[in-house]
Recover the amino acids of this structure.
């Protein structure tokens, strides 16, 4: 079968990390540790596992970070190279799997938990906090925090992969494939909204209006009693979408601190040779970008005792504010079975705004992967929220 | 003998005319038939300034002489106009300092010990020590500043404000407590234009937001026609009501001065001359200055203009009862600035210079430029506006100086946030004024830094309410397009382009009046 495979290449990774920022074309050219290959499809060797035919598989910010060498080496211990990326997957079953007949259209919860690994449930999995599973490197399959990072399961950027029944969520009839593709990112957004600990009337900052930020905004608006939701958006289309998804106000990145200061009556301080910050600010800030600048904006714009949620894969940042303002910095990773994030996400994807958004999903065949990654890198500027591979397409 | 102001009609012999535009000027060729209004030349000034001050204090209008109002053990407060007057700043010694010295001398002779001096800056920025020293002079500054007896009025210091009651129209009158509880309040003013002085001095200069909001609002401003004519100004009517209430609580001894319009010292004096009378030297100076300004960085141009100090001549000084004094003052202001004009025109052209009351030692941001042009210059009329209802104002200013975040922090938010939502003075006032007025950060900066009060940009926008209500279009020649658009205006590259744009409002051959300003002029439109 055709698949895109990420492989170990120190020179490419170093080149991407060193020069990718200045010469973006390198990230989809010589510096990309990715190749289009023909490989045998992954095999089903244990009960509960099933082969899936990929219909669509999204390109996530974490995929781009990994391919451009930006992802921390912290994660090198929880992946097994080479692997087929792609953890946002809409697929159909190639055979029966327990209660699901062949041909059922499903989305995949990518987290490879104890259930999928065939080991006794760890304490986190027992509590339903499957995204916190402690056994992600052991069991029947090789190390991998998720489908799309594990050598044995394959990933969505291919024609086939395998998944465990515990990972599968049937897609309701009436949802387009593109709409279904958004269920996994929306599930992450649901988890983010729940982790944000928003109280009634809280003022929330969402830094970033890519897919993560927009869907987090939707989840906050639909699932919490947040008061004002201020979204930081760079591009015109993002601004429109943020308002559609429930933002009270949308601001440009350079305006963020000033607008929050105004809205909250906070005091603004200007430290020497450093970015300004507020004494006072929003109750909750969500970093939906994962850049140093975005994270520092969140830290600097949150009131003392407030909460900063790391929704994007975080970059290095000055944590002085977290100490000085006694901020709660919480991570939010994937989603958990216990909170029924996929069920909630499946409901939210039926929202009109998401349905409209799904119509704008840009799809590419596997062999045009460089174009697809280019597009994904520039998605915000080009007004696209999600880019995906459609392995069924030849052109 | 100075020549009065006059109206020139541009013909084919008229040379290009000087038009101010921020930190520079241009020589513009106006269409034939354009009316150009020139202010009168500087009127005769008083040679013996100290003698005139003494005479005013000893022989006041409708009041006992100042020495008779002074007695041992009394509380004496001297308030004075802040740095927003005069424009440009007066070359030392400042008239206010000379007057204050004489008041203090008389007080000392009468054994008055309890004296405090307050800069009547209302919601303007606190002046720096150097700026206050420039106004009051070194001797007064050294005697009072270190003791804390010379300071800026703080309109947010709740403990030091006194609510004197309500006017018959329900307006709160709240002013500086020290001033309100003094046995005598001496106010020292410089009456640069007709809107200054009178009951506006104490009633506004020493007031709080609670008091100011009654007349500094869109409704009052749009009905002040004009606020250079206090008898037809709603704002002044309100201030007068407040002033009369203040008089019932505290004895006010008003000292008002008028100055000539000798604003540009050598070698910039050609800027005040009529262009066809420019000597070879004047023409060379103009050429050299224009070339120099064209290549000078903005910072240098800013320094060049803002370092300029004017050598004003004192044209009048009157002291005593507020209203009686002010009547005399206004007569003198009119003598210096009034120009009679027959009828309105379709288009008025105004050059907005580098300086207004609120950017002394700071930058002329787009809001201040709009206020200067559409607030002060547009309203500088008696009778009726120079331009007809539905006419067009063409202003010159690059609108590119940006915002000074030290002095105008709330202006940035006003520009970015408020004007993005609406440019209607009534709408923005209704929705945002309270937020800005009570924002603790702005209050903090006003009280402890050198920032204009949070509500101040609203006041600037209210100043232009009458113009916005009256005009059909506003076009900025050479103005930054984005800044003009943010304020709801349009910009043009040249006067001809602006007239072309205006043609949809006033037709292809409109009547045009150019206000050759500064020096300041007051158009008496018949």
């Amino acid at each position: 079968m055709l698949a895109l495979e990420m492989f170990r290449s120190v020179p490419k990774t170093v080149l991407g990390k060193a020069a990718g920022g200045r010469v973006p074309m390198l990230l989809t050219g010589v510096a990309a540790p990715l190749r289009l290959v023909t490989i045998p499809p992954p095999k089903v060797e244990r009960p509960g596992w099933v082969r899936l035919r990929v219909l669509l598989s999204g390109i996530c910010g974490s995929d781009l970070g990994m391919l451009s060498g930006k992802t921390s080496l912290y994660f090198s211990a929880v992946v097994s190279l080479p692997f087929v990326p792609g953890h946002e997957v809409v697929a159909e079953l190639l055979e029966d799997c327990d209660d699901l007949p062949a041909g059922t259209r499903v989305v995949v919860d990518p987290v490879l938990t104890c259930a999928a690994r065939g080991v006794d449930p760890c304490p986190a999995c027992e509590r339903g906090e499957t995204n916190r599973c402690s056994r992600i490197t052991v069991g029947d399959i090789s190390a991998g925090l998720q489908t799309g990072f594990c050598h044995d399961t394959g990933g969505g950027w291919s024609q086939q992969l395998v998944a465990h029944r515990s990972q599968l969520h049937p897609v309701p009839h009436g949802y387009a494939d593109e709409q279904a593709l958004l269920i996994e990112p929306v599930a992450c957004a649901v988890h983010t909204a729940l982790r944000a600990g928003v109280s009634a009337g809280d003022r929330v900052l969402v830094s970033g209006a890519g897919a993560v930020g927009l869907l987090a905004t939707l989840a906050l608006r639909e699932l919490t009693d947040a008061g004002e939701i201020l979204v930081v958006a760079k591009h015109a289309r993002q601004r429109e979408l943020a308002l559609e998804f429930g933002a009270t106000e949308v601001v440009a990145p350079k305006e963020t601190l000033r607008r929050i200061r105004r809205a909250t009556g906070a005091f603004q301080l200007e430290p020497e040779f450093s970015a300004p910050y507020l004494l006072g600010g929003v109750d909750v800030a969500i970093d939906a970008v994962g850049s140093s600048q975005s994270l520092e904006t969140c830290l600097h714009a949150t009131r003392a005792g407030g909460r900063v949620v790391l929704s994007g894969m975080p970059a290095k940042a000055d944590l002085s504010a977290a100490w000085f303002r006694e901020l709660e910095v919480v991570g939010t990773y994937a989603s958990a079975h216990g909170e029924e994030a996929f069920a909630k996400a499946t409901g939210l994807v039926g929202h009109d705004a998401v349905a409209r958004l799904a119509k704008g999903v840009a799809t590419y065949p596997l062999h045009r992967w460089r174009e697809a990654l280019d597009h994904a890198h520039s998605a915000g500027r080009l007004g696209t929220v999600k880019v995906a591979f459609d392995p069924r397409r030849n052109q | 003998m100075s020549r009065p102001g006059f109206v020139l009609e541009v013909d084919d012999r008229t040379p290009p005319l000087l038009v101010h535009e921020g930190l520079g000027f241009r020589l513009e060729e106006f269409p034939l038939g354009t009316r150009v209004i020139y202010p009168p030349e500087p009127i005769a000034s008083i040679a013996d300034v100290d003698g005139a001050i003494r005479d005013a204090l000893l022989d006041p209008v409708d009041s006992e002489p100042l020495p008779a109002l002074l007695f041992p053990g009394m509380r004496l407060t001297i308030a004075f106009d802040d740095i927003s007057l005069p424009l440009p700043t007066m070359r030392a010694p400042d008239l206010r300092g000379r007057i204050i010295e004489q008041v203090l001398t008389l007080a000392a002779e009468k054994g008055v010990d309890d004296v405090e001096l307050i800069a009547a800056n209302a919601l303007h920025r606190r002046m720096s020590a150097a700026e206050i020293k420039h106004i009051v002079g070194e001797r007064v500054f050294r005697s009072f500043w270190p003791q804390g007896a010379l300071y800026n009025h703080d309109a947010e210091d709740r403990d030091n404000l006194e609510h004197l009651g309500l006017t018959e129209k329900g307006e709160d009158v709240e002013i500086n407590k020290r001033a309100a509880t003094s046995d005598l309040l001496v106010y020292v003013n410089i009456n640069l234009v007709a809107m200054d002085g009178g009951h506006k001095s104490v009633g506004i200069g020493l007031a709080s937001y609670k008091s100011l909001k009654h007349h500094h609002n869109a409704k009052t401003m749009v009905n002040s026609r004009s606020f250079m004519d206090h008898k037809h100004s709603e704002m002044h009517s309100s201030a007068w009501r407040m002033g009369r209430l203040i008089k019932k609580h505290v004895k006010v001894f008003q000292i008002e001065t008028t100055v000539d319009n000798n604003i540009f010292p050598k070698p910039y004096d050609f800027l005040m001359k009529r262009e066809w009378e420019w000597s070879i030297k004047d023409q060379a100076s103009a050429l050299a200055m224009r070339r120099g300004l064209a290549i000078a960085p903005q910072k240098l141009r800013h320094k060049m203009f803002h370092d300029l100090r004017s050598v004003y001549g004192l044209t009048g000084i009157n002291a005593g009862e507020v209203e009686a004094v002010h009547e005399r003052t206004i007569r003198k202001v009119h003598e210096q600035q009034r120009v009679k004009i027959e009828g309105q025109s379709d288009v008025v052209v105004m050059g907005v210079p580098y300086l207004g009351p609120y950017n002394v030692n700071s930058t002329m941001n787009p809001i201040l430029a709009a206020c200067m042009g559409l607030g002060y210059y547009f309203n500088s009329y008696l009778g009726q506006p120079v331009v007809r209802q539905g006419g067009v104002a063409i202003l010159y200013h690059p609108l590119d100086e940006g915002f000074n975040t030290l002095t105008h922090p709330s202006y940035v938010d006003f520009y970015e946030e408020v004007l993005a939502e609406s440019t209607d003075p009534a709408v923005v006032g209704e929705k945002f004024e309270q937020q800005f007025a009570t924002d603790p950060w702005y209050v903090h900066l006003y009280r402890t830094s050198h920032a204009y009060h949070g509500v101040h940009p609203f006041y600037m926008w209210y100043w232009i309410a009458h113009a916005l209500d009256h005009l059909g279009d506003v076009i900025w020649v050479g103005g930054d397009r984005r800044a003009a658009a943010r304020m709801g205006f349009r910009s043009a590259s040249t006067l001809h382009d602006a007239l072309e744009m205006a043609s949809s409002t006033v037709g292809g051959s409109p009547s045009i009046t150019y206000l050759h300003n500064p020096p300041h002029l007051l158009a008496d439109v018949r």
In short: The interface with chain B takes residues 255, 258-259, 261-262, 265-268 of chain A (CB under 8 Å). Chain A has a mean pLDDT of 94. Residues 147 and 370 of chain A are 22 Å apart (CA to CA).
